[in-house]
Inverse folding.
């Protein structure tokens, strides 16, 4: 690795990061004290923001504050959440607040503090392509520098020995509702934009929330709290078979440890795919405090007799949808267990239908001839979070939050951010700047030794009387 003092355009970087979400921000923070590394991170957005449309008052992240960008790899780092509080003179108030789970808005403020102070981050930079240059044995990263208005100002190219992709996820819109999103008239929007349209939704006659995960629950609760008793006019629908709580037992949480990640990665592809589909309640259920708050609010509205004008129905999917004139939306619903169908007319729809990993194909089109893929044409990713490329490519492409199919349900979990970043940096530097624990869970997820033990002659003699006595 180089020992950078100041970078020149002709000097290749050691690492170029694409995307500046929490995971690449974690990597940048842990790379900051490694002075031998020459790194830069690009993002097309004007600044860091973490799910701004979902920063509802009181909404908390579902991991403890120790799952910040760096602590679980380096608690002495200057970029810890506790140091952020110290610099804001908020350490004693936080101490007395006794909060293990902080608010989403507070986590966003912490990340923005880190982003504002790291010199290696470059916003307003849209990465257009990544290629391998076999003559120079380097990656070429083409980007467009954007102005404050988002328009292109200049083109640039960076050469680097390694790349890390942290392009994150994008809102998922079910196919039947896709034509209705972002068209004039009746609001049909993804939960990612909820706060931007909240005032419109609060004045709408009837509102339907689709999606029975945490975001759907929080949005339903927020709408419920701000609508008059007896005239709530709220529907809450989702495909899951129950309004299920998220798995939050201590041993259940061990599925979000490095131990389980390593175990999962070693499984066969069909087994991994089956597990990911079956483990939805580990990360797509609803926080127990949120379900309790919803029930409390609904119960409060029965005190004067009658029931709130709400419908909560799991196990339902939208078959088709369309507009009625320009003022309403008609949803054609099917109940998966009953196999019954019905129609629902509504004035607004909020799609709390989650996120999907952004496809890597566009940005990595130039690397396609070198990429190794699995049976479903997904990139193969090794235990060090590197894309498996042709051996002729001597550099590495690391990925963050694009490896659920190879590393399991912990992939998008903030609690594994620092460990994954440290794993990448340990591999990148060829040394061990961040020593990591060899064991992190009480659960042993597989058999330690799958090979049958052959008894010794002494063991055989000891067993013989028991066999003869049967």
């Amino acid at each position: 690795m180089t020992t950078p003092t100041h970078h020149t355009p002709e000097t290749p970087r050691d690492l170029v990061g694409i995307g500046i979400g929490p995971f690449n921000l974690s990597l940048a923070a842990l790379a900051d004290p490694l002075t031998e590394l020459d790194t830069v991170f690009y993002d097309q957005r004007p600044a860091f923001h973490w799910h701004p449309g979902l920063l509802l008052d009181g909404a908390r992240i579902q991991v403890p504050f120790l799952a910040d960008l760096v602590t679980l790899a380096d608690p002495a780092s200057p970029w810890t959440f506790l140091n952020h509080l110290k610099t804001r003179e908020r350490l004693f108030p936080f101490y007395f607040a006794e909060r293990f789970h902080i608010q989403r808005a507070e986590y966003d403020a912490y990340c923005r503090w880190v982003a504002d102070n790291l010199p290696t981050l470059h916003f307003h930079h849209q990465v257009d392509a990544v290629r391998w240059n076999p003559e120079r044995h380097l990656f070429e990263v083409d980007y467009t520098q954007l102005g404050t208005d988002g328009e292109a100002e200049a083109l640039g190219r960076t050469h680097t020995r390694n790349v890390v992709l942290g392009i994150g996820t994008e809102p998922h819109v079910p196919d039947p509702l896709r034509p209705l999103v972002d068209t004039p008239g009746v609001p049909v929007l993804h939960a990612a934009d909820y706060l931007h349209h909240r005032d419109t939704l609060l004045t709408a006659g009837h509102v339907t929330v689709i999606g029975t995960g945490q975001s759907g629950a929080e949005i339903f609760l927020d709408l419920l709290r701000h609508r008059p008793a007896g005239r709530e006019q709220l529907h809450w629908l989702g495909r899951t078979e129950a309004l299920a709580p998220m798995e939050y037992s201590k041993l259940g949480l061990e599925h979000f440890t490095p131990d389980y990640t390593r175990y999962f990665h070693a499984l066969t592809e069909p087994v991994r795919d089956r597990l990911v589909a079956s483990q939805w309640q580990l990360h797509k259920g609803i926080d127990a405090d949120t379900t309790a708050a919803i029930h409390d609010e609904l119960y409060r509205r029965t005190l004067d007799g009658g029931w709130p004008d709400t419908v909560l129905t799991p196990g339902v999917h939208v078959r088709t949808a369309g507009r009625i004139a320009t003022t309403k939306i008609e949803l054609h619903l099917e109940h998966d267990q009953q196999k019954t169908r019905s129609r629902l007319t509504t004035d607004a729809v909020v799609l709390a239908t989650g996120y999907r990993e952004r496809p890597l194909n566009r940005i990595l089109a130039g690397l396609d001839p070198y990429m190794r893929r699995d049976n479903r044409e997904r990139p193969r990713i090794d235990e060090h979070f590197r894309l498996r490329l042709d051996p002729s490519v001597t550099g590495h492409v690391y990925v963050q939050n694009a490896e659920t199919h190879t590393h399991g349900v912990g992939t998008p979990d903030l609690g594994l951010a620092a460990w994954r970043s440290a794993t990448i940096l340990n591999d990148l530097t060829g040394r061990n700047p961040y020593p990591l624990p060899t064991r992190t869970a009480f659960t042993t997820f597989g058999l330690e030794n799958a090979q049958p033990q052959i008894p010794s002659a002494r063991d055989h003699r000891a067993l013989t009387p028991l066999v003869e006595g049967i």
